[in-house]
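Final report, section 2: Outcomes. Of the targets proposed, RRM domain-containing protein is the one most frequently requested by collaborating groups, and we therefore present its record in full.
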Amino acid sequence: MEEEEHEVYGGEIPDEADMDADVDIGRSDEDAAKLQELDEMKKRLKEMEEEAAALREIQAKVEKEMGAAQDPAGSAATQASKEEVDARSVFVGNVDYACTPEEVQQHFQSCGTVNRVTILTDKFGQPKGFAYVEFLELEAVQDALQLNESELHGRQIKVAAKRTNVPGMKQFHPRRFNPYMGYPYRRPYMPPYFASPYGFGKVPRFRRPMRFRPYY
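The predicted structure is given below as tokens.
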């Protein structure tokens, strides 16, 4: 009996070592993809942590500013320091528009050491015609008041002690009585003879009755 020959398609059968190598290559590709995905997740987590840290820093800064604004002790200390600075300052009015801070400082140099000269300006940068002079010594204020009605740039200036503005307090100036105008006339209130069921100032609207016409 003759033996039957079996044909093998697809070439030679690979060895087990080659098959294991192919499996290892596939696994290495999957591991590389997983490592890359893990690195991306770590990067995103790091960015989120940085954003959270920045938000916490901003929140702490805002809370610190709000606490400083709401702190009565801090506000009292600030008000006290402002009053102390105002006590060493004078108000100078009728200042020439072309006058510079250096010229104002030279004018008050004989009174004491000038710490700061402030010439107020409007929103367009033009001087308003008055200034504030701050001294280092408290006694210099009395000497500066002696320069009231002195000439600076050919103009007679006004020197007075600087007043401290209290925050939240506004001076009330009531209207003065004008004898030529008198008091405005106010019409007296006249109560109605009967109470209206519709409310004050409301008048009911009535529709005019129509004429009965049976043939129309």
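The beta strands are 89-93, 114-121, 127-135, 151-152, 155-156, 158-161.
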